[in-house]
């Protein structure tokens, strides 16, 4: 696998990204919002708002900021790490879905009904029970009533959902958008004040450059100032070999090929940089994160593909987008025969992969291993 090149300076020496035009006007609103979230957290801390212990051990993966920090690839990593020892379940809100309430996810599901990220996880791990429910307490209880109740439940994007107790709380922060350099909404991107980071057991700095040094990691550690009981790790995103979405054909080298990149993710720039570095002649169609593709979008994609120069041309998308595109009506046969998927996975840096695994297992020492799958 290839690691995406870094296009971002080390953030501890970069200007905070809330230093922008309009920040002063938004600061009063941010102060009000931050105060409300502080009061909410205090209400949970003192028991005025309830936190319920589920009948299963829980790992939560989330972040302080809105936008992509790589939560789903990290949940995917945890599944691969833990599935040999535990019968796992995954519970997500199912962001962007048209349904409400509890729903089990099947591999044949339309992403519009369950959300693209839960469907992506189910397609990767068909033996793992994946469900969606905006009420995580209810969702956890419903999962325990299924034929194969999980021994360990992974919550995707649940850091602020404090109504359910978690045995391990994992906080992600983007290397290029570290939370100490941010501000709460609407002046910045934080869902709650940075004091909320103290609730985490493990902090992972995501999307780091592959060349991250120990000295740079130490600088970030100083900035984040984790408590002694909080573990700090660093990960990078790696790109695997593309595969065809609708066909079984072999995928050629993309060097010198005209390539249409169709993406509806929060930050497509690293993907575009990676594909350009492979020698492809890249043209991109960028949609909003979690975009629900329509027949009109399909027509737009068809035309953009037809307009690519040359005879050897391909289209490519992310696995998250593929979960939404696989049932899209209106894609031409030409697109369907040439649409590739770019897998993205997580890798721990500074030779800490085994340290992370041991740390997590230690925190889960009271969870009973699976006797059969």
TrEMBL record:
Binding-site residues, ATP: 65-72
GO cellular component, one term: plasma membrane
Catalytic activity: a lipid A disaccharide + ATP = a lipid IVA + ADP + H(+)
EC number(s) given by UniProt: 2.7.1.130
Lineage: superkingdom: Bacteria
Record keywords, A-Z: ATP-binding, Kinase, Lipid A biosynthesis, Lipid biosynthesis, Lipid metabolism, Nucleotide-binding, Transferase
GO molecular function, one term: ATP binding
Pfam annotation, one family: LpxK
PANTHER family the UniProt entry points to: TETRAACYLDISACCHARIDE 4'-KINASE, TETRAACYLDISACCHARIDE 4'-KINASE, MITOCHONDRIAL-RELATED
Role played: Transfers the gamma-phosphate of ATP to the 4'-position of a tetraacyldisaccharide 1-phosphate intermediate (termed DS-1-P) to form tetraacyldisaccharide 1,4'-bis-phosphate (lipid IVA).
Name under which the protein is recorded: Tetraacyldisaccharide 4'-kinase
Taxon lineage: Bacteria, Pseudomonadati, Bacteroidota, Bacteroidia, Bacteroidales
């Amino acid at each position: 696998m290839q690691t995406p090149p870094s296009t971002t300076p080390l953030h501890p020496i970069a200007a905070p990204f809330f230093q922008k035009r309009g920040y002063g006007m938004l600061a009063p609103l941010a102060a009000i919002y931050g105060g409300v979230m502080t009061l909410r957290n205090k209400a949970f801390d003192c028991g005025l708002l309830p936190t319920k212990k589920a009948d299963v051990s829980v790992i939560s993966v989330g972040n302080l900021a809105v936008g992509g920090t790589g939560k789903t690839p990290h949940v995917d990593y945890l599944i691969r790490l833990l599935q040999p020892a535990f019968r796992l379940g995954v519970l997500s809100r199912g962001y962007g879905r048209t349904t409400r309430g509890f729903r089990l996810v099947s591999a044949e599901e339309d992403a519009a009904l369950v959300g693209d990220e839960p469907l992506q996880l189910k397609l990767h791990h068909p033996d793992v029970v994946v469900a969606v429910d905006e009420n995580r307490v209810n969702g956890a209880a419903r999962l325990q009533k299924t034929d194969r109740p999980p021994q360990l439940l992974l919550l995707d994007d649940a850091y602020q959902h404090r109504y359910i107790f978690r045995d391990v709380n994992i906080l992600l922060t983007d290397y290029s958008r570290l939370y100490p350099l941010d501000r709460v909404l609407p002046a910045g991107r934080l869902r709650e004040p940075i004091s909320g980071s103290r609730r985490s057991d493990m902090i992972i700095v995501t999307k780091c450059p592959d060349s991250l040094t120990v000295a740079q990691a130490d600088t970030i550690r100083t900035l984040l100032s984790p408590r002694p009981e909080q573990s700090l790790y660093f990960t990078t995103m790696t790109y695997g070999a593309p595969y065809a979405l609708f066909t079984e054909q072999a995928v050629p080298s993309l060097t010198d090929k005209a390539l249409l990149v169709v993406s509806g993710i929060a930050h497509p720039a690293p993907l575009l940089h990676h594909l350009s570095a492979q020698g492809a002649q890249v043209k991109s169609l960028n949609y909003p994160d979690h975009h629900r593709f329509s027949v009109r979008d399909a027509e737009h994609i068809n035309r953009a593909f037809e307009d690519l120069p040359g005879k050897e041309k391909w289209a490519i998308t992310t696995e998250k987008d593929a979960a939404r595109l696989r049932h899209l009506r209106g894609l031409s046969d030409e697109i369907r025969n040439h649409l590739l998927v770019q897998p993205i996975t997580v890798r721990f840096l500074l030779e800490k992969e085994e340290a992370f695994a041991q740390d997590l297992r230690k925190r889960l020492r009271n969870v009973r291993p699976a006797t059969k799958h």
